[in-house]
């Protein structure tokens, strides 16, 4: 009699889920329940909540390399990757105390091969043989997230939220059934429940919708992890680690291919971001090549530009332009623009950081007219002025005064009937 194939499951626990020993014990009980159900389990862990910030502060205190020496980005990674090493070891110890065979794995031991862009590295390859052999032997593999190893043997971290990416990449390498992301929320909601108490938890959401929500301000999953899951067609389930095994059957939200969602909603969610700054450029020469010059300079400085709108100025043959950048890039953007002012020939540049971006997202937009009309009507009814608009196939974003953020989110949530899902 042939033995049926064993299901492999990758589980990931975030920083709040690893916050102290009691939370680690609860995570261990959740892992043990999956192992008891006959699954081969690999677990990816983040550092304890707040630990990475502490480690980053230490590296800041140590200071930059002296002039003439290479930057210390590789040593930065050595320091900040240590938080996940601690939680991986503690969870593996806790599982052993419960009678399970378990061991911790660091990025270089698997290995998780990454490029050498220290602090923001990307995973290039994960040879699955060592992990697969451990799982086949009945061991629970506890893996330090957020880290890989370069081809010359140096630790490289994947950027903030990188443990999500680690988990999805390992799930794909192991050909797992699913990747479960345990966090401090019990799923993906139609909007932030802290703003709209009528927000509803979604049972399923498409990769594209989740990618838009993550990039537009929703903090549930890291953007790169969703991109990777979509590319690998790896289902991801978002669920809470603050319940005991069996306490909340059917909890969580599945992030999956659009084809797996039977009922397509016109709009699935409302997202917002207060991390926006509006840059206004006045009196631009209105001829070809000006936009290329502006955004080429910003791209060379690694400044990410989002919403863009251009309009004619009062003076003939000139235009005004507005675009948004992240708040942390606002001052640098103004400096870059002022340095280029004489070369480009515009009159002035200004920044407004008292703005917010509010977006509606839904795959149903592709086949339904009137989504924009509903959005603009709902905002007008509440007296919310729109400064900039941008659209894609499945989302509409508007830039508004930051003071109206919560009002706009609630108005749009109601306008699309999301409180009735």
H/E series? EHEHHHEEEHEEEHEEHHEEEHEEHEHEEH
Strand fraction equals 25-35%
Main β-sheet, spatial strand arrangement: 3-6-2-1-9-11-12-10
The outline comes out as: globular
**Poorly predicted parts:** none
Mean pLDDT over the full residue set: 92
How many extended strands? Answer: 18
Separation, N- and C-terminal Cα atoms: 47 Å
User: Helix count, per DSSP?
Assistant: 12
Helical percent range?
Answer: 25-40%
Structural class: alpha/beta
Largest sheet: 8 strands, mixed
Q: Brief overview, please?
A:
With 421 residues, the chain is of the alpha/beta class. 33% of the residues lie in helices and 26% in strands.
Structure description:
With 421 residues, this protein is an alpha/beta fold. Helix content is 33%, strand content 26%. Helix 1 crosses helix 4. The model has no long low-confidence stretch (mean pLDDT 92).
Topology:
Layout: E1 8-13, H1 21-36, E2 40-45, H2 51-62, H3 73-80, H4 82-97, E3 102-105, E4 113-114, E5 123-125, H5 129-136, E6 140-144, E7 147-149, E8 155-157, H6 162-173, E9 178-183, E10 204-206, H7 207-215, H8 223-232, E11 236-240, E12 253-256, E13 269-285, H9 290-300, E14 305-312, E15 318-326, H10 330-344, E16 348-361, H11 371-381, E17 388-392, E18 395-401, H12 405-415
Parallel strand pairs: 1-2, 1-9, 2-6, 3-6, 9-11, 10-12
Antiparallel strand pairs: 4-5, 7-8, 11-12, 13-15, 13-16, 14-15, 16-18, 17-18
Helix pairs in contact: 1-4, 6-8, 7-8, 9-10, 11-12
């Amino acid at each position: 009699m042939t033995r049926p194939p064993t299901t492999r499951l990758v589980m990931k626990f975030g920083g709040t889920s690893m916050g102290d020993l009691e939370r680690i014990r609860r995570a261990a009980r959740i892992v043990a329940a999956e192992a008891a159900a006959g699954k081969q389990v690999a677990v990816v862990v983040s550092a304890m909540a707040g630990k990475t910030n502490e480690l980053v502060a230490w590296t800041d205190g140590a200071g930059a390399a002296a002039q003439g020496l290479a930057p210390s980005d590789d040593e930065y990674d050595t320091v900040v990757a240590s938080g996940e090493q601690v939680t991986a070891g503690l969870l593996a110890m806790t599982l052993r105390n419960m009678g399970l065979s378990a061991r911790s794995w660091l990025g270089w031991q698997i290995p998780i091969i990454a490029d050498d862009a220290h602090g923001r590295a990307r995973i290039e390859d994960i040879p699955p043989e060592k992990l697969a052999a451990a799982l086949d032997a009945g061991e629970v593999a506890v893996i330090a997230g957020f880290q890989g190893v370069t081809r010359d043997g140096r630790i490289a971290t994947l950027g903030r939220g990188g443990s999500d990416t680690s988990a999805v990449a390992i799930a794909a390498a192991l050909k797992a059934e699913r990747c479960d992301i345990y966090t401090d929320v019990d799923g993906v909601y139609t909007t932030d429940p802290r703003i709209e108490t009528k927000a509803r938890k979604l049972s399923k959401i498409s990769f594209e919708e989740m990618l838009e929500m993550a990039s537009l301000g929703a903090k549930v999953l890291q953007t790169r992890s969703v991109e990777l899951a979509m590319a690998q067609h790896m289902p991801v389930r978002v669920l809470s680690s603050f319940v005991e095994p069996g306490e909340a059957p059917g909890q969580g939200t599945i992030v999956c291919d659009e084809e797996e969602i039977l009922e397509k909603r016109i709009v699935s969610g409302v997202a917002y971001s207060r991390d926006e700054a509006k840059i206004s450029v006045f009196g631009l020469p209105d001829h070809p090549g000006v936009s290329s010059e502006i955004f080429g300079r910003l791209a060379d400085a690694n400044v990410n530009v989002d919403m863009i709108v251009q309009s004619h100025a009062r003076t003939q043959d000139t235009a005004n332009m507005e675009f948004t950048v992240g708040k942390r890039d606002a001052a640098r953007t103004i400096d870059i623009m002022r340095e280029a002012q004489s070369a480009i020939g515009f009159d002035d540049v200004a920044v407004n950081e008292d703005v917010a971006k509010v977006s509606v997202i839904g795959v149903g937009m592709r086949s339904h007219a009137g989504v924009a009309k509903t959005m603009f009507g709902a905002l007008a009814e509440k007296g919310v002025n729109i400064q900039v608009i941008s659209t894609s196939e499945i989302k509409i974003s508007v830039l508004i005064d930051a003071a109206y953020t919560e009002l706009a989110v609630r108005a749009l949530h109601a306008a699309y009937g999301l409180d009735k899902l």
